[in-house]
Amino acid sequence: MSEKSDPTTKREQKIKEKILDETFKKAEISRGIKLPEITTLTKKHTKKIFPKLGILLIIVGVIGIIFINNLPWAFIRYGTGDDKTETFIYRDFEIVESLEEEINALLKSPYYLGISDNDFIETPSLSSYCFFSLVILGVVITLFGLLDRWRNLSLEVFTITHFIFATIAIIPGIIIVLSVIKFLGAHILLFHNAPFVTAPDVIVFPTVFIIIALGFIIIKMMFTVMRMDFTELQKIRESNISKQSSAHNAFRG
């Protein structure tokens, strides 16, 4: 009898085939278990932090409102030698010292400064509304941070929402700067129209400089936050593409 027809040889061959088959099945099962681990990976490459943007907006908004209502919007000094008169103009055209004739010559028609007494009423009101809107937006962002602690939003949703808030906050910042920029131009117009009006020795707008600085701080801060959020969204997108590619290669393998 040949070696091929030997029952013992056939039995050993079947055992070998069975072992190979079981090994192959185990490999498939093992690969199937690891695959969900790749596709359901939830670790974040960066840790979410509480949105400090809200707190910063509240602080800047409150500071702006305090300055608008308490600091002088204009300081004017008239006279020569020892005979000089100084006065401050606050919001709503509240004048500390009486210089009605001189101030009217500057701020009434034909508006040699490019600003009028109404600008001391309307501009502070508009700026106050903008700073107040920043305070409200800051409160909303802070509440959003508390909501994230409670609901544990995904990193992508968190970053997109934070980006949107930063974009919205730029609008009041731009309005603040544009609303008070006319006061800076008043210095140039005063020099140009000096032959037509009794020019003061000194005229400055203290609050205006502070408000403009706060406006540019808001704009700069928001663009920085937007750039950081945009970079984070790119990282999330690249991470998602990498996961999909790994999952696809695992299926093909």
How would you explain this protein's 3D organization?
The chain has helices at residues 7-39, 53-70, 100-107, 119-151, 155-192, 206-252; strands at 74-80, 83-90, 94-95, 202-204. Helix 2 (53-70) packs antiparallel against helix 6 (206-252). The chain contains six helices and four strands, in the order H-H-E-E-E-H-H-H-E-H. The chain starts with 6 loop residues before the first helix and ends with a helix. It has a four-stranded antiparallel sheet with strand order 3-2-1-4. With 253 residues, the protein is α+β, with helices and mostly antiparallel strands.
Mean pLDDT: 81
Number of helices: 6
Order of helices and strands: HHEEEHHHEH
The helix/strand class is alpha+beta
Q: Order of strands across the biggest sheet? A: 3-2-1-4
Percentage beta strand: 5-15%
Overall helicity:
55-70%
State the shape. Answer: rod-shaped
- Specify Rg, calculated over alpha carbons: 36 Å
Uncertain regions: pLDDT < 50 for 5+ in a row?
Answer: 32-46
Characterize the largest beta sheet: strand count, sense, and whether it forms a barrel.
Answer: 4 strands, antiparallel
* Quaternary structure of the protein: single chain
- Please report the distance between the alpha carbons of the first and last residues: 45 Å
Q: Total strand count, please?
A: 4
Write a compact overview of the structure shown.
The protein is of the alpha+beta class and 253 residues long. It is built from six helices and four strands, in the order H-H-E-E-E-H-H-H-E-H.
Topology:
Layout: H1 7-39, H2 53-70, E1 74-80, E2 83-90, E3 94-95, H3 100-107, H4 119-151, H5 155-192, E4 202-204, H6 206-252
Antiparallel strand pairs: 1-2, 1-4, 2-3
Helix pairs in contact: 1-6, 2-4, 2-6, 4-5, 5-6
